[in-house]
Amino acid sequence: MKLSQIISGVIKVLLYFILTVGAITVLIPFLWMLATAFKPYTEMFKLPISFLPKSPTFQNFVELAHTFPLPRLFFNSFFIAGVACVSSVFFATMVGYGLAKFRSRGLNIIFLILLSSIMVPDFTRVIPLYLTMVRLKGDNTYWGVIIVNYLSIFGIFLMRQYAMAIPEELLDAARIDGASEPRILMEVAFPLLRPACVTLLVIKFMWVWNDFLWPLVMLREPKMMTLPIALSGLKGLQVIRYGPLMAGAVAIVVPVAVLFLFLQKYIVRGIALTGFK
């Protein structure tokens, strides 16, 4: 066996070992959360610590359901995240496609300005955005939370990079056949951009679904709150209700995990091909 083959095999083994350790490190908190959600309160603080519950119970989920109006919280979270995702994908696709395929003076400058806005921390914009929403009567409303997330600068960047890989000849052929630019976008470009759209949809859904700061600032009434805000009420100054808190964390994670499992092939393809021209 050649030395180069031995070195290549060793590197591959080390790489798989590092990836396995990284995967285990990421999975342990998730598995611990899942196990704790089914533990009775007495087992959570019992020594020696046991990873798996010895007497599994659904009491934590029952207590969570009695504490919060879960159907209303799920509706709030799904509605805000769903509308924000659809609008973000729609606008990011149009803007990203235009920046990639249209030729006009100043488009690159506009793109650089958009990218530079990513470097501005979100919390620095909370006060001016809140004052603006109050003047527009958008505080404590769904649209007041959605309007901040209706467009994603990262989504514009993602769609632009993906749209640059679309052959110009394909678009020119559609123009020769008499297709308008909106029709070219919807019937020619959009099917090719589908993996990137699905990738952005999942990323944006996770972002808005788990968002805490902006809904906390905007939403005051309990019936308007999202799941992360409601679960923060389980953490008091002196008492933390770990059981219902872990059950609520499982309830938050499950929809995102299911969405990712169903769309993972599109996500991998969208991320892998983004940037290739």
Automatic annotation (TrEMBL):
<feature type="transmembrane region" description="Helical">
    <location>
        <begin position="109"/>
        <end position="130"/>
    </location>
</feature>
<feature type="domain" description="ABC transmembrane type-1">
    <location>
        <begin position="74"/>
        <end position="263"/>
    </location>
</feature>
<comment type="similarity">
    <text>Belongs to the binding-protein-dependent transport system permease family.</text>
</comment>
<keyword id="KW-1133">Transmembrane helix</keyword>
<keyword id="KW-1003">Cell membrane</keyword>
<feature type="transmembrane region" description="Helical">
    <location>
        <begin position="184"/>
        <end position="209"/>
    </location>
</feature>
<protein>
    <submittedName>
        <fullName>Carbohydrate ABC transporter permease</fullName>
    </submittedName>
</protein>
<dbReference type="GO" id="GO:0005886">
    <property type="term" value="C:plasma membrane"/>
</dbReference>
<feature type="transmembrane region" description="Helical">
    <location>
        <begin position="242"/>
        <end position="263"/>
    </location>
</feature>
<feature type="transmembrane region" description="Helical">
    <location>
        <begin position="12"/>
        <end position="35"/>
    </location>
</feature>
<feature type="transmembrane region" description="Helical">
    <location>
        <begin position="142"/>
        <end position="163"/>
    </location>
</feature>
<dbReference type="Pfam" id="PF00528">
    <property type="entry name" value="BPD_transp_1"/>
</dbReference>
<keyword id="KW-0812">Transmembrane</keyword>
<dbReference type="GO" id="GO:0055085">
    <property type="term" value="P:transmembrane transport"/>
</dbReference>
<keyword id="KW-0472">Membrane</keyword>
<dbReference type="InterPro" id="IPR035906">
    <property type="entry name" value="MetI-like_sf"/>
</dbReference>
<dbReference type="InterPro" id="IPR000515">
    <property type="entry name" value="MetI-like"/>
</dbReference>
<keyword id="KW-0813">Transport</keyword>
<feature type="transmembrane region" description="Helical">
    <location>
        <begin position="73"/>
        <end position="97"/>
    </location>
</feature>
